Amino acid sequence: MNISTIKKSILGLSFLAATALGTVGTASASHLSGLDFRLDNYKYDATLETLKMAPAGTDDWMTLHIGGPVDPRSYHTVTFSGDVDNCYYDLVGKMDDGSVYTWHNVDLCHTTDLTVR
Asked: What is the pTM of this model?
């Protein structure tokens, strides 16, 4: 068992224990999961309106709350409380100009930035 696996196991157990006690809210849970990332919109003419994600290869889509539209040349930090045993997700972002961006099999445990160009 390597250090990364041990850390994830400890975080997972801490999350389960805190949840059982009712002491962890959504923001704290997402912090514990380590799945938070920065969503950068580098497009000059379109605003990102929605972002959905699902465990990679599944149809279990959920809409993420990204704090409102992500205007051109700006960013939002996306917090997500997910399963610490699953790092890989598919994401779909829809822009106000009708374009769609898709990211497949993204390792959110090791990704800190997603970029729309």
From this structure: 0.66
Q: Are 84 and 9 in contact (CB under 8 A)?
A: no
Q: Flag whether 53 is in a domain.
A: yes
Domain residues for the domain of 102 are 34-116
* 89 part of a folded domain: yes
How long, in residues, is the chain? 117
111 vs 35: CA distance, rounded Å: 8
Tens-place pLDDT, residues 43-74: 878 999 999 999 999 999 999 888 889 999 99
Distance of CA 26 to the CA centre of its chain: 13
Q: What is the CATH number of the domain that holds 52?
A: 2.60.40.2890
